[in-house]
Write a structure and sequence with these properties.
137 residues; alpha/beta; Hypothetical Protein Ychn, Chain: A; five-stranded parallel sheet; two-stranded antiparallel ribbon; 3 helices; 21% helix
């Protein structure tokens, strides 16, 4: 029997969290993929960086705030969230504006570790080159 290779899946989030269905659909697809033991990573660039901003309030626009669901990603072993530094800066944001997302490392006595990694455009290009499948939302 041939050994099955786990493919690396990158989900690129480029859209603002509200106003279109893309951000919510991407999150749902990520959770489904992770449930099937895919090696899942997420990249947030362009207006997609707004998806991770802390303290989102959607009452004024009458839609459900789905940002708390990002906190569940660690429970699905989704621990690699890459945020493009230049996209943050171009939108007047800094890493301090993002929600804190962590995962528990069972190999390190369940220590909480950050899921979000701030990377440059060039670093992100290199990370994307290491993926088997890239889906852009």
């Amino acid at each position: 029997m041939q050994e099955e290779t786990i493919k690396k899946f990158m989900y690129m989030n480029r859209k603002a969290p509200y106003g279109t269905i893309y951000a919510l659909e991407a999150l749902e697809v990520v959770l489904i993929g992770a449930a099937f033991d895919q090696d899942v990573s997420l990249a947030f660039l362009d207006d997609g960086v707004f998806q991770l901003v802390e303290g989102q309030d959607t009452d004024g626009i009458g839609v459900k705030n789905f940002s708390p669901a990002f906190r569940a990603l660690g429970d699905y072993d989704v621990t690699k969230l890459f945020v493009e530094k230049e996209s943050l800066e171009e939108r007047g944001l800094s890493p301090d504006d993002l929600m804190e997302l962590v995962w528990e490392d069972e190999d390190d006595d369940w220590a909480e570790k950050p899921s979000i990694r701030i990377v440059t455009r060039d670093e992100l290009k290199s990370i994307l080159g290491d993926q088997d499948v890239i889906l852009s939302f």
